[in-house]
Amino acid sequence: MSHQQEIAHLLTRQSFIEQGARERARSLLDSGTFRELAGPFNRLYSPWLAAQDIATQADDGVIVAKGRLDGHAGVILAIEGGFQGGSLGEVGGAKLAGALEMAAEDNRRGNPTRAVILFETGGVRLQEANLGLAAIAEIHAAIVDLCRYQPVIGVIAGSVGCFGGMSIAAGLCSYLIMTREARLGLNGPQVIEQEAGIDEYDSHDRPFIWSLSGGAQRHTTGFADALLEDDAEQIRRQVMQFFAQGQPALPRQLRCRWYQQRLASVDTARQTDAHMVRAIFSHQKDQYE
Amino acid sequence: METLHLEYPATAPARQRVLVGVVASGDLEILIEPATAGRTQITIHATGSLSPDLWRKQLDRLFAHGAAAAMHMEINAFGATPGVISLRLAQAMEEVGT
Amino acid sequence: MLHQRGRCWFQQLCATHLPVSPDSPSLLVADTSLAGWPARYITVVPDRHNPFPRARSGEVGLREGWALASAVQDAMQADQAQDKKRAIIAIIDTPGQAYGRREEAFGIHQALAAAAGAYARARLAGHPVIGLIVGKAMSGAFLAHGYQANRLLALDDSGVMVHAMGKEAAARITLRTVAELEALAASIPPMAYDIGSYASLGLLWRLLPVRNADQPLPEDVQMVRATLEEALLDIQASMDCSLVQRLQGPHRQASRRVRTLLREQWPD
Predict the structure, then answer these.
(1) Phi/psi at B79 (nearest 5 deg)?
(2) Checking DSSP bridges between strand B18-21 and strand B27-34, what pairing results, if any?
(3) CA A274 to chain centre
(4) Touch B-A: 3+ C-beta pairs under 8 A
(5) ipTM (interface pTM)
(6) A41, A55, A82: residue with CB nearest B76
(7) What digits encode the pLDDT tens for the residues A236-274?
(8) Does residue A193 lie in a domain region?
(9) How would residue C247 be classed by pLDDT, with cut points 50, 70 and 90?
(10) Edge-to-edge strand order for the sheet containing A62-69?
(11) How many domains is chain A partitioned into structurally?
(12) Which residues form the domain of B46?
């Protein structure tokens, strides 16, 4: 791109990260096709938060939007990271699982509905603990079911990232798109520090955290399939491209032997760092050497 | 959590549904639906220390004159300050088109 | 002794079995039968010599995740051409996922996804999957090992616990004291830690009263085995490989309502 083109692009590019979940869903669907289901005006409030003096949101932090993806029937599941850190409670979890279940049912009837999940979540909403966890198990079940028919695409854009039981959901997706700002990890930094101590994991050391769980590292080490700029149009195009590619030949989760081999070669006597992880997982020469 | 109900005289029904905001810390969401002509009903669920009087003041400003469209308004607020409330209300009223 | 229930119940239930060499010493895998039907039992146990230092007390860590996935996938592959898809029984007693730098760095989320995905695919392929909770079933570890089961069973015992996060960590994250958390849990069933409250959520198929969960008496083992057989027959009779029967409980009203609305509004 020429210098002038670069500037033009920067001026017109629309941030994905700065948009709320609903706008993100709208930006991915073909123009004019967005239709929200079980939305805020259905008032599916969390049955559990009011008793704990916690303000509720009418969509419980999850947006289900049907529409067209490059002309194909699709559904976007977008988690609102601004509400309770995107954590999943009973209702939000049910919206996610239920919509994926409906998409799988569509496919069994010959309608090739496809799904995109926008992960902006810390995992289980602790104020709903076991119902959040159960819902996440149902989300896992539904992703695996739908993956039999269509690729399921996950997008982790930031700034909340994707943690907890939903990082497992991300690991079940056919393709994962990340930005540099985004992070993907099972346990949040604070919990690791609490459980294992600050020497093991310093939850205030941002460069350290991103070096291990940030989008660039996850992409280089093969845990994400695309690393994109914070650009709504680029993200949309990549989603369409992955759908056009179809099911991945060998998804990560089926590569047990390979991952076991790689992990067996780790010198676990030493503490690890980003460089070591890249050496273990990268096929290519480490570009940072 | 405080729950507040307010009612105001109003004119013709609002022309559309509106949703603005997010229930993030220090913020609020506002849901608006058309109501039958003549009356606006508002329900506020709020955590935080803002007094009912301050809420009333904000909404009186927009509705007490009775010339706004008739609507059901629901507000879910999470420790929002008067400044943020004011902004979101303005945003909502602009979108509803009165 | 901490987290020895998995091993103990595994040994009791797989008295005559063909040991299978799992990919990690922290897994016990055995092929036997249940009510005349082929069955593979799997459990995760403490491994003091686990190369990953944060995964030595029965946690589901990197090795365990991929080893679970292999154990399930191997069973699926072996039975691919068979009419009789063997039952897969997850015996669950784990303090949770492993928390550590290595774990995050090397992608523990993907290891657990491989395990959860394998169990789910096995269930969809027609393998009856049963989860038997004999101790702790926590968070990511439970999601990876057991939560994809057709039927969930739990011992009715104070040492049996299902939750998303330990009390101290949960209290810290939600900015409350442990006492406040416990007070809330007393009136909000999904937040509670005891298995009785968990059972009230409608996710368990059966709660099993035993005389001694740590050192089971012969009558305990007999009763559990008989219930596992019942669960197997129930799965086979239902002809359903989904998790839909978990939606029946009174505390899952909102979960049902959401699905009803989605179905109503779905058609274009």
Answers:
(1) 65, 35
(2) antiparallel
(3) 21
(4) yes
(5) 0.98
(6) A55
(7) 999 999 999 999 999 999 999 999 999 999 999 999 999
(8) no
(9) very high
(10) A35-37, A62-69, A72-79, A114-118, A152-156, A175-179, A226-228
(11) 1
(12) 2-96
Q: Is C187 exposed, middle or buried (0-12, 13-18, 19+ CB in 10 A)?
A: exposed
CATH fold of C5-241: 2-enoyl-CoA Hydratase; Chain A, domain 1 (3.90.226)
- Residue in C108, C190, C243 closest to A129 by CB: C190
Q: Which helix (H) or strand (E) holds A93?
A: helix A90-108
**What average pLDDT does range A219-231 have in this prediction?**
98
Degrees to nearest 5, angle at CA C90 with C88 and C95: 165
Domain boundaries, chain C: 5-241
**Bridge partner residues of B18 (DSSP):** B32
Contact C57, C99 (CB under 8 A): no
Nearest residue of chain C to residue A255 (CA atoms): C114
Residue C2 is predicted with a pLDDT of 66
Angle between helix axes A256-264 and C108-124 (nearest 10 degrees) is 150
Considering only CB atoms, C101 lies closest to which of A44, A135, A272, namely: A272
Look-up of token digits 């159960």: A134
> pLDDT tens-digit profile of B30-86?
999 999 999 999 999 999 888 899 999 999 999 999 999 999 999 999 999 999 999
Answer yes or no: are the C-beta atoms of C127 and C85 closer than 8 Å: yes
Token couple for A37: 């289901």
Task: In whole angstroms, give the CA distance from residue A124 to residue A101.
Answer: 20
Residue B72's CATH number:
3.30.230
Domain total in chain B = 1
Structural domain for A171, as ranges: 3-184+224-253
Is A47 inside any structural domain?
A: yes
Cis amide prior to A203 (ω within 30 degrees):
no
- The candidate with the shortest Cα–Cα distance to C143, out of C119, C172, C124, is C119
Residue A139 lies in a domain: yes
- Mean pLDDT within C109-114: 98
- Which residues numbered 60-119 in C keep a CB inside 8 Å of some CB on A? 62-63, 66-67, 69-70, 73, 97, 99-114, 116-118
Supply the CATH number for residue A235's domain: 3.90.226.10
